[in-house]
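Job type: complex structure
Entries:
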Amino acid sequence: MAKKIKISELGSLFNGMDVESLEGVTIEGDIELEMDTAGGLDPQLAYMLGHETAQVAQHLINISRLLGYPVDQLFGAMAQAAVSGVTRPQELLRSKFEVGRMDDWKNPIQEVTLGATSADGGSRGSTVTLGGENALPYYFDSPMPHRNFVTMDVFDMAIGMAKAVKVNYEDVIESPAEWAKKVVKDFNADMVTIHLISTDPNIKDTSPKEAAETVADVLQAVDVPIVIGGSGNPEKDPEVLEKAAEVAEGERVLLASASLNLDYERIARAANQYGHAVLSWTQLEINAQKELNRKLMKQCDVKREDIIMDPTTAALGYGLDYAYTNMERIRLAGLNGDDELSFPMSSGTTNAWGARESWMVKSPLKEDSDWGPREYRGPIWEIVTGLTLALAGNDLFMMMHPGAVAVIKEITQSLHGSLERDTVDISNWVTAEV
Amino acid sequence: MKINSPLEVYKYLPQTNCGECGEATCMAFGSHVIDRSLQLEDCTPLLEDKFKKKYLELSELMAPEIREVTIGVGERAATVGGDDVLYRHQLTFFDQPALAVDVWDTMSEAELVERVKFITDFKKFYVGRFLRMDMIAVRCTSGDPGTFRETVSKVMENTELPLILCSLDPEVLKAGLEVAGDNKPLLYAATKDNWQAVADLVLEHDVPTVLFAPDDLDTLKSLAGTFLEMGRQDLILDPGTNPQGTMLRESFENFIKLRRAGIKEGQRDIAFPLMSVPMTAYLTAGDEVSSSYWETVLASVFTVRYGDIMILHSIEPFALLPEMHIRDTIYTDPRTPVKVEPKVYEVGSPGKDAPVIVTTNFALTYYTVESDLASNGIDCYLLAADTDGLGVEAAVAGGQLTGQKINDEFKKVDFDFHEKTGHNTIILPGLAARLQGDLEDATGLNVMVGPQDSGQIPPWMEKNWPPKPK
Ligand code: B12
Ligand code: SF4
């Protein structure tokens, strides 16, 4: 049987002892400490006793650690304190915080202006300039020359929409021109996108000529810069966009889109010929984006100031992780010197409405907690999707819900530093009655 | 993490290729240590005495740049911090931000209990698991330590979630610790005015604490240095979350500055997890819905840019759902393709008249479909076709999901339609409608096209199942 020792002896026993000699040691039974501190223990003695036991404890901790026992996780900072001994500063140790700026962001993002006023041979009342950044969005390294902008979707025919979106457009759904007026006047859109989806042969097969008339109507109805979108049909889009580019000559619209799966050369040529910009659209793949931009510049002679990229937007919960990181990588590559990726970006934020959380009445899963009213879920889904991409470097948002547009503008302009609002005292938020 | 190549790790390892860690070589183990899929402690020989020095050195070198702080005890304890990179594509972010929702000590008991239970139980299924909230922040609005103490105990009776005790009055915090002290709550907060008294509590109870210095990084750093001097490593920094205008921009900058200093510049004395308080959205004028929206917006901003723990007020599902999702979005590991094993799964207990349904092995797709079916009591066979982890639409577009492929997948697992079913029918996702003809040709079976979203399968089944005999 092992020899019994007092706890104070344990300390001196371990002192300076090589650990190897502890192999095979077992500690049996409970360690009991009886102390009567109530009966006026001499303070000095108490201190010494405390010191002694702390020493022992430290040895025990060290042994446990050497035995591979995760003491540090268990005791956390306590073990740390026991080892180093706690010092108590009497005053705050004054220090100054400093941090450097990013010196490898040397390459500015290309500036691209959309829309042309009468001074430049167009008829727009105002223009929109994107890009010009020298840093990630809203970073202090360098001021962001232009705020984010929102272009609101208008369709050339009645389409299916989530209920929360539809209620805003029921009165104008049959007239693209009225629809365009409404988004500019009532919903504060910076730009309008006219989607010519009825031109799809599988939908209405509207002729390019007829589609171009719709574009002319929209240009008449509003004086903000516009984006012209095809139906997404790779065979039909080039001829539709050519005709549309022609009627919009001089207005510096954005043609959406040139992509690798259609005849992008025709779209690039139309842009060059009639003085427009091109949206270079790829699907969540940074190398494809480089390739298409390169082809537009080298093969089709599109000028740098005429290119905006759409690297694809996936909704929150449905691939936004891919979309976010894709955009962030593209923007960082541009800032770090990759001139095939240093262009402003645009996001089809409306895609957020594809997420079931934004439109379904309730969760299809019985195990889920109640999702609450969908009227509120949809807009916030569009907001969070767009906002996340704003932080990754997106410049222009294509959106649908007026409430979502208002919030996206408020937050991006706040982060941009261009919105004055009352200063709120946050020092006592804990006690706030809310 | 001060080193980033397997070779550098290798130098500190026993170099015996003994295989104890489950890897064939020490080099292989080294690369898992670098990507943090294995821990140093998994190499048991390294823990032997003769390697002690190397182990300690390596531990130091491998520690994440941003310290990890654990709050709470037991199963729902949460660890925050632990990040090593500024952008998720450079590795991945570790330790999801903890989302705390507030309660306060002037609530009626009934309201309090209801709110605590709601926060504890709120959940949403996503990719094979439930998204949840993590903590409860108990705010002292009464100013009275006794009232606070009672509220804290009431909260503890009704939840296992870790607590944040919120008051700038040390007496109040002390009262809270009297009942919650053993559960490792987080104290909110030490400031330049109360830090002495809060430090006493922190040292006595060995609990993590937040250091709060709104809009003043010098003071924040001073506080951190002072607490470090006292041996405290489990600190969380709150530089202030201003809810609006140019002050919000300043808060945003502060988060970036702190994280850049911690990770890029290795400034250890501020390399702590950061707290954001999006509930300051409620300090501005606005109705309930707009405050709740704005709080969600702030939470999203600070989830993307470096908040590690947040205090929120709204319990509206339209706020909680996006908050939980954006956190998952940013913290999901970009290195691992999220897929499930490709095979035919049985949902419920399928009999001969149970439908056979095709989907892909992308985890998001599979789990969404599987849970839509299971939750609605639809017994069936579900093929997760091997599309290399792509969803239906992307796989159809890219050619990873074809009629031939689906046929091969059934063959591979010896799924015999004649033996298992009495209907010889396959149901395709609506988004794979164009594979219908090919699949019929390849299998010789009857192929039906389901709705676009698997959430619509139950009503679709009511109308279309069982298939009408031709
Ligand atoms: C994320 C994404 C990607 C990721 C894929 C990530 C992954 N693991 O799948 C990446 C970046 C890799 C990618 C690549 C491509 N993509 Co992609 N991608 C998307 C995106 C943004 C989201 C897809 C998603 O995850 N949806 C969520 C999942 C859960 O949906 P799901 O699998 O379809 O499942 C649902 C339904 O199908 C249904 N369901 C599923 N199973 C079943 C079964 C039955 C019986 C029923 C009834 C229903 C049902 O319910 C599910 C839940 O709602 C979409 C755009 C969008 N929709 O927002 C484009 C999209 C799918 N991609 C597209 C394309 C073209 C591509 C590429 C070909 C691009 C390219 N040119 O390189 C490549 C293809 C890659 C390949 N195959 O090699 C197109 C497809 C167009 C089309 N319809 O043909 C889309 C629609 C974008 C677009 N508008 O052009 N993509
Ligand atoms: S357990 Fe350690 S020594 Fe053995 S192979 Fe793994 S890393 Fe090498």
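Summary: The two ends of chain B are 66 Å apart (CA to CA). Chain B has a mean pLDDT of 95.
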